[in-house]
Amino acid sequence: MKTTALFLALIVSGSVFAKNISFTYFGNEGGNQSYYACSYAEDQTQSYLEMVGATNIDVRCSGGISGGWSMQPVSVRASYDIAEVTGTSVESVEIKGDYSNPACGLNVRIIKEILKTMTNVEVLKKDDSCAFATSNYYFKLNIAH
After folding, report:
1. Please, which pLDDT band fits residue 121 given cuts at 50, 70 and 90?
2. How many helices and strands, by DSSP H and E, does the chain display?
3. Most buried residue, 13, 37, 40, 59, by CB count within 10 Å?
4. How many angstroms separate the CA atoms of 4 and 9, rounded?
């Protein structure tokens, strides 16, 4: 009986699609090697996924900066759900980074990987060139709900 109720709830609320991303970021900007903590990569990925309306988010990272001063590229894997767009509501979102919010290359890579899986997001404007880790980046997105 619970299974039937759950199934009916899903039909009424629309379809949900499971999505995944997986990538390794090697951090070479402007000829300099950059390394990041997995906690930072996980937090940024989670934040961007929430921004575009993902739910049931699970982000995992390996590598990165860890105890004992070990430094490796970060490998990020995320799974999440995206609801089917049923309405005509559109939300504009800006994502930007500057000198006070560095990690240009990593953030741009996370955003681009997520955007590859999103059919409900339109990129209106972007500046995603990262000559250095401290370079500015900018995305203006329309997100349909």
Report:
1. very high
2. 3, 8
3. 59
4. 9
The token duo for 10 is 């899903």
Q: List, for residues 41-79, the tens digit of each pLDDT value.
A: 999 999 999 999 999 999 999 999 987 778 999 999 999
pTM: 0.86
Choice between 10 and 86, residue whose per-residue pLDDT is larger: 86
Cβ contact 76:25 at 8 Å: yes
Question: 95: helix, coil or strand?
Answer: strand
d(CA 144, CA 89): 6
Instruction: Name the DSSP letter for residue 85.
Output: P
| Start-to-end CA span in the chain (Å) | 31
Return the closest-CA partner of residue 131 out of 101, 105, 99: 105
Question: Which residues have CB under 8 Å from 58's CB, separation 6+?
Answer: 78, 79, 80
* CA distance linking residue 46 with residue 137, whole number of Å: 18
